[in-house]
Amino acid sequence: MKRFSLIIVSVVLAGTALLSMSLFSTKKQQSENQIVTAIIADEPPRPDYDAPAFSTIGGAKGMKQPVHKTSATMPTLAEQLNTLKGRAFVREIDGFWRTCISEQNCDNLLSELETYLSHDRYELVKNFQQLNNQWQQSIGNLLFDEQQTLASRIAQLKADAHRIWGPLASVILDDEFALYDFSLQAEQLNNEPIQNYLASFEELLQTWQGKEQALGLDSNQAKFERAVALIPNAIDEAERQAIVNKLKQTYLTPAESDAIDTRQHQVTQQQSLVRDYQSELQQLESELSQQRATIYANLSALQWQQHHQQQIANFRREFFAD
Question: Hey, is 74 helix, strand or coil?
Answer without folding.
Answer: helix
